[in-house]
Amino acid sequence: MSCAQAFQALRSSSRSFAARHVARSCQPSAASRGVTRVRHYSAGSAESSGESKTDELRAEEIEKDEVTITPEHALLEKIKQKEAEASDLKSRLRYLQADFLNLQRNAAREKEQTRDFAITKFAGDLLETVDVLAMALKSVPQSTLQAPASAESSSSPPTPAEKSAEAHLWDLHQGVEMTHRLLLSTLFKYHVKPFDPTGEKFDPNRHEALYQAPIPDKEPGSVLECQKTGYTIKDRVLRAAQVGVVQDTS
Predict the structure, then answer these.
(1) How far apart are CA 109 and CA 179, in angstroms?
(2) With pLDDT > 70 as the criterion, what percentage of the chain qualifies?
(3) How far apart are CA 121 and CA 134, in angstroms?
(4) Model pTM?
């Protein structure tokens, strides 16, 4: 082969190589073509899904409009509202009834207490009179309270001038005793009762200690003597009993 032929073959081979290189560079790669296709497909699917969601929302709004427009639905809504109002009114009525019943019970209890303890002050003032009558009865010895013989043997009652001093004392004692008994019975009708705590355990709520004395044969803390009788009205202490208490020597 000559030099000219060799040079001609080299030029043709370089031209064909350059043409191939240009052709390869002008064609897009398979990866880029696949990405482009994927991108076009995803955009199309997003648009179609958006359109479907919009259609669904429109359909739901149309259904809601159709439901609210129907008179049956409006009537059901009114019935539900009225039922809620009725239940609320029932609960309020129950609370009001309970409050009214409590008010009635409290009023009845207060009325009963007012009726029972209305004479508390008046009964407390009368107790001083009862004490004076009791002291008058105790001041007369029992030996001088024998009925006169003339009153027993004589058929006709003697005149005041014919009566002796013993007879007058007897009559006076009987009158004072009847007055004392009648006054106590009247107080008893209003639930005012006396109590004598001699021998009982000392209770500061019911007893008033005047003195203490050591007594060997008595239990310490017990009531030794009752100098003034105590009184109660119902379950309340009207007046505490004035007592002497056995002192503890230990």
Answers:
(1) 35
(2) 66
(3) 20
(4) 0.54
